[in-house]
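step=predict obj=Acyl-coenzyme A oxidase n=694
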Amino acid sequence: MATTSRSGSAPDDEDSNSTPAMRRLRRLSLHLLQPSDRPSDSLVPAACAGKRRAGGLDADAAALTAYLRGRHRAMQARVYEFYVARPELQTPVELPTAAHRELCFRQMSALVRDAGVRPLTLMASDPAEYFAVMEAVGGLDISLAIKVGVQYSLWGGSIINLGTKKHKEKYFDRIDNLEYPGCFAMTELHHGSNVQALQTTATFDPVTDEFIIDTPNDGAIKWWIGNAALHGKFATVFARLILPLQGKGGEPADMGIHAFIVPIRDLETHAVLPGIEINDCGHKIGLNGVDNGALRFCSVRIPRDNLLNRFGDVARDGKYTSSLPTINRRFAATLGELVGGRVGLAYSSVGVLKVAVTIAVRYALLRQQFGPPKQPEISVLDYQSHQHKLMPMLASAYAFHFARAYLVDKYSEMKKTEDEDLSADVHVLSSGLKSYITSYTAKAISICRESCGGHGYAAVNRFGGLRNDHDIFQTFEGDNTVLLQQVAGDLLKQYQQKFKGGTLSVTWNYLRDSMSTYLSQPNPVTARWEGEDHLRDPNFQLDAFRYRTSRLLHSVAARLQKHMKTLGGFGAWNRCLNHLLTLAESHIESVILARFIEAVKSCPDEKTREVLKLVCDLYALDRIWNDIGTYRNVDYVAPNKAKAIHKLADYLSYQVRLVARELVDAFDIPDQIIRAPIGMQSEAYSQYTQCIGF
């Protein structure tokens, strides 16, 4: 669309007594009714798109990029270059489901067999590099990232994390080179989040030394199983381990949920094996490159060695042994080893957010609408309302970038040390960050679409595909609401330990160090401080976040104790559920801000550090303003200070707008990965018109 200037006389002769609303309407009428001085068919560059305003910071995109780049950017570049050089492997905008599935499998095969990437080896040796590869392939097609995740994080990860030496020797290399495509069969028609209630059974037969896998009813059909409909040859099946005659009175003993390797297709002919029924879950809202299927088992026999026996084993005589004494502890240990999927989703979701924000910001810099009389139109990002939509989102992308790096470092350390306390910490941290980041990204994509107007609705500009493909991130690997409850539950556990004199895990240190301070009455003097230096002090910002979390924790603990007397544990939890979810989100926001502040402090380049400090301040003050009611209710913030926070957050959004181009360029996402014409670094309109045939 042409970038045109609007003509018309200035409203100098307006009645000085007219209302502001009337003056605004008259001014808008000039933009809407007067003809353009420039030919309507001209395509010109956006003159103000890159204009630097007085008073803004100088941002060096290259320096920002250098600081943001992880250790494995070279691997990501290698993956990008591989797919860019193979146009036949790039996913077109419109593609039928069947063709998309076959293309997705070819994309994964080429990554392994032609590019020489060994994802399972990376996952075992350096999880950070594995997650970097996942983000890179997700840039090509999110379906590909999920298919790779099913093959390696889930199917391969179950062998690494739940199996023992014999399983790794037999399966590791063949999974890594894609000779053994597989599935992760946990979810059932009637049960997803409540894994302990799964109904599929694995009954030991001591006569034949085999397990018999059965689907006892339709509710136990394995559902939404990735790779099952077409490509999988094996499945890790989660089932109840049943031992005949070992219960009370000679009854069968239910030993709880265990994982079993079940072949589902012939290795040579690819035919479905006897006793197994596979059906296709069909076309989905998104991720149609992944072949989700449903599995039913009818007396399927597998060798005893196919039990993944790291946490529990069955001997030839049917005797059960485990280093963990209870079903609950074995179950917790089993699920605790599967947190890599949540880490991967949090990591990939940040990548999706970066792409969406980059497209929206670049287009907002390019697109020009209205302006002062007799002057050129201005960039839509110069409007305060547009800055309010996009700049806090851009700040969040930076905040999440540093938070995910922290999560991956903790996860990598956990895999090396196998420290139980660290494992528990990573379990809760991954639950919280996966839930918070994926929920935020899902909402942000829709806001980005809206901010790009009608052009954001074009499929070629990607928001529809990103939204549909990413939406399920909020559900699989743990429903977000369920995961937040795990965070809240752990906070309450830590809170109880604090008052019993116990130790707290690293992530919750601030509760140990400052609980008494945060639970005391707010200082009436500091509650009124409104100076910019004070509001931009990271100590004030982090204290505010942590004060809110501590107050929420203290109050919900009191409410639970009160309601348990009449409603019992489950009823009390349900009565306080919204309170608990708010607590969990508040804590995760505190963790994210702490990591951002640390990243700013650690930045070696002064100018880059100043820019990051600006972005961090916006992230913090925008979050405080969004929940200003909580701070006002407990007098943590006086009315004058609340007003100052609001005013400063708006000003910081404006300041971030001045370096918005450099901030999105610093993500260093190649145009071939962005792909949306309106998100290109140059000649966006020209590329857009070419896309539709001009």
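step=describe
The longest strand covers residues 253-263.
step=end
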